[in-house]
Amino acid sequence: MNENNNASVGGNVNSPSKKENNVLMGVLAYLGILVLIPFFVAKNEPFVKFHVKQGLVLFVIEIAVYLLFSMFWSFWMLVQLLDLAVIVLSIIGIINVVQAKEKELPLVGQFSKYFTF
Asked: What does the pLDDT look like over 42-58, one tens digit per residue?
């Protein structure tokens, strides 16, 4: 029994485990500030890197919406609409991760090219 445990720990990690980790990191990329976890942990994986860039675009939009709300609280309905749009885009991104797709988010996905790391 000890030999089996050593075989799995000793570097013969199967790709399903790596795939599950990439999916987890990809999902975290679309959850606001949690985008920092995959950024620091798994940004060298091409699949995760793609989704981290998409998630960073959404995170920047979230910060801009927060700043907009703090300066122009009278436009709270517009801010709420923008918040809803970010939530919908996050859900689309998470669906793409789960389906193992590297598909840009509608409307804002093209801005990810400005993140180079």
From this structure: 878 999 999 999 999 99
Model confidence at 19: pLDDT above 90: no
Say how many C-beta atoms besides its own lie within 10 A of residue 23's C-beta. 18
* Contact yes or no for 93/45 (Cβ under 8 A): no
CB of 61 closer than 8 Å to CB of 107: no
Residue 42's alpha-carbon distances to 6, 52, 68, 112, in angstroms, are 24, 9, 32, 17
Tally the C-alpha atoms within 13 A of residue 44's C-alpha that lie toward its C-beta.
2
User: In angstroms, rounded to a whole number, what is the distance separating the alpha carbons of residues 86 and 84?
Assistant: 5
Contact 88, 62 (CB under 8 A): no
Q: CA–CA separation, 105 vs 112, rounded Å?
A: 9
Contact between 49 and 43 (Cβ < 8 Å): yes
Residues 32-44 pLDDT 10s? 999 999 999 987 8
